[in-house]
Amino acid sequence: MNILKKRYIFFALSLLIIIPGLIILGVKAAQKNLPLSIDFTGGSLLEVQFEAGSVPQPADVLALYENFGTRDAQVQTTESGSILIRSAFMDEPTRDQVITAMKDQFGGEVTILRFDSVGPSIGKQVTSRAAIAVGIAALAILIYITLAFRRVEHAFRLGLCAIIAMLHDVAVVFSLVAIGSLLFGWEIDALFLTALLTVIGFSMQDKIVVFDRIRENSNVLRRLEFEKMVNHSIVQTLQRSINTQLMTVEFLLLALALFGGLTLREFSVVMLVGLLSGTYSSIFIASPILVVWENREWRTWFRRRPASAA
Amino acid sequence: MFRNQYTRLFIILLISALAIWVDASNTLKVTNPITGELVMQRSVNPRLGLDLQGGMQVLLEADLPANTAIDAEAISVARTIIENRTNALGVSENVIQVAGDRRIVGDFPGLEDSEAVLAILQKTGLLEFVDMGNSPVEEGTIIQTDYGQSSTTPSGISTPESTTPAVTPTEVSPTPSASGTPEATATPAAEAPIIYHTVLTGAALKTVTVVRDSTTGAYEISTVMKTDSAQLFSDFTGSHVNQYMALVLDKKVISVLIIKSQIPDGQGVIQSKNFTSDSANALAIQLRYGSLPVPLKIVETRIVGPTLGEDSLQKSLIAGVAGMIIVILFMTLYYRLPGVVADISILFYAAIAFAIFKYFHFTLTLPGIAGFMLSTGAALDANILVFERLKEELRGGRTLAQAVEQGWKRAWSSIRDSNIAAIITSIILFWFGSTFGATIVKGFSLTLAIGVIVSLFTAIFVTRTLLALVLQWFKPKNYSRWFGI
């Protein structure tokens, strides 16, 4: 099995997934319309359950919000029949007034399922701090890999390839959310942050397992060409990659099937795709980049016919 | 470590017995079998996060310009005060934590009425000197006083009250800051509630210091009153010698004193046989900062209704159990004999991890469950790595004993490195989560880190020992049947 032979096809495939999403994000960012939830922008989210038969129309809820001077309200009806209203920041007294008004206007009992209210200053800090935390974590892992693999030639290169492949997974996840935001109105929220962290953790673990095999084989199979040795390592760890992926993903598929609710479903899909990407990128991105680097293939990229890719 | 297989087996059984004991009980009790004395008691009720049982979370931030340095002690004192106040509400298992240098996170599980908590948070603390007459109540009792008004600033933001100079000298009901609104205080219903008389409030205190008696070395708290209050205090103490006076914070008695003599110049000394350096300082802090030492504002509120929480809990339990069953089936069918050993090892892993969560009172949240799932993946991965290696070595023509030995040796470096990387990540994320009040990230990284550490233990200790023992007893000959080659 020669996986590395088609490496440029895999690179192209990844770009095909990543680029559209990033373009969407870029356009949205330019319009100052990034699909960020109130966790990052500040605002309020109210989910209420009405009694059967007295569920109001979204327009009526909007009108009610406007009466209280709460701006930017968006109303969404969930599968379970509850109503999800996102709006500008709303304090507790206003919320109580809104609930009372709902009871008066639409009749029946109104139950609050969820109420989140985030001040605008908090959101911005969460975003920047989360980025810093992920950055520091990546740096720490780069250092660790460089140390753990110090007996291998170019240990730092291994670390860097792992980080690049991990960033690939992050990009895939963001691209997915961007497409989801366009099609289903998904938002980047705090749960998304959890999914992203899980994906990063899993991705790094996977890369290290493959690189460990490369580390071992680089001693045993000294005579073999680098590219063949790496390919051999990938094939040897393939069964493990598939089985572990299967078991971890199986957990998530279950979660996906069982967790209801709008936000949790989004969370499960993001996790699922992210974990798949984590395994994919260890095999088809991290190790091929290693080979590209070893062969210094970029010298042939801009010539007419790259000899090594044949 | 522990070369003998049977020693290892004994240790494994001991640990799992302990874990199952913690998992299965709500309270741990150890009594000395000879004397019947209680040696240890610890509640190990599973603590569920707000997203799983419903409740409210509030993030408070110091209401000062962003570049103002905030005294770490002031924030920690504010935390203690808020904890005391919310505990007086009778809500169980509140968790109030300092997050970073200017924030406090409060979790109120199972609470539906958010109003009460918000009112408590926004209230200014009230320290009262209460006339107890000849029959003092116990410390910790919640009482009613005739000083029935507390003040709230119009914006709903608490401000330090001890700096307010305005005190009416003659009347007993001085309102320290303006715009006081009448408010019903949460007092447990007594049959015939006694209403105690408030002599002075905390606003009368000028300085509070902890000193040591020069002869006995005992700790004392020395207080100095403001001049206008000193006269009032002098009159009161003069007419109530040998009677009791209580220090009451937010309607809760924190200390009961006996008036030994008239205190003419407003310079009092609080003595107690029980004072240690810590307890004297703690009381002094409460006297000094009856109100919050830092003004706080609410920057984030999250409420999860109980139905939604219950729903999520049920679904994650079902997902967990179903997931485990599928894992067990897969491992048995695919890896055969070692797979069964791995199944036992994974069950150990789940039992130990859950026992740790229960024993150390970790709060389980949905992100926490995600972290736990990821670490379960890591635990499985360790087994899968070893077994794949084992099969590879068997295929390569090694004997069973050699293959087992080599399988462990060779898989170990990848298990070690990948798990250490996971631990590094989770430590950094935990630090991020706890300094910032981002409880989602904190819950995730904590269960991930614990899970990964436990999974390392079960992989190298449990799976390895059990596999060696099983192979020793069983001596399988047909590799394709027992190892699935």
Description:
The complex is a heterodimer of chains A (310) and B (485). Chain A has helices at 7-30, 38-41, 58-67, 92-106, 120-148, 155-184, 190-220, 226-258, 262-295, 298-301; strands spanning 43-50, 74-77, 83-87, 110-118. Chain A is of the alpha+beta class and 310 residues long. Chain A folds into 2 domains: 4-33 and 122-301, Multidrug efflux transporter AcrB transmembrane fold (Up-down Bundle), CATH 1.20.1640.10; 43-118, Alpha-Beta Plaits (2-Layer Sandwich), CATH 3.30.70. With 485 residues, chain B is α+β, with helices and mostly antiparallel strands. In chain B, 48% of the residues lie in helices and 20% in strands. Chain B has helices at residues 5-24, 50-53, 72-87, 114-122, 227-239, 277-288, 306-359, 366-395, 400-436, 439-474, 479-482, and strands at 27-31, 38-43, 47-48, 55-62, 95-99, 103-109, 127-133, 144-145, 149-151, 180-182, 195-201, 205-212, 219-225, 244-249, 252-258, 267-271, 296-304, 363-364. In chain B, α7 packs across α10 (439-474), α8 packs antiparallel against α9 and α9 runs antiparallel to α10 (439-474). The longest helix of chain B is centred in the C-terminal third of the chain and has 54 residues, at 306-359. Chain B is elongated. The interface between A and B is large, with 67 and 65 residues. β4 of chain A pairs antiparallel with β17 (296-304) of chain B, so a sheet runs across the interface.
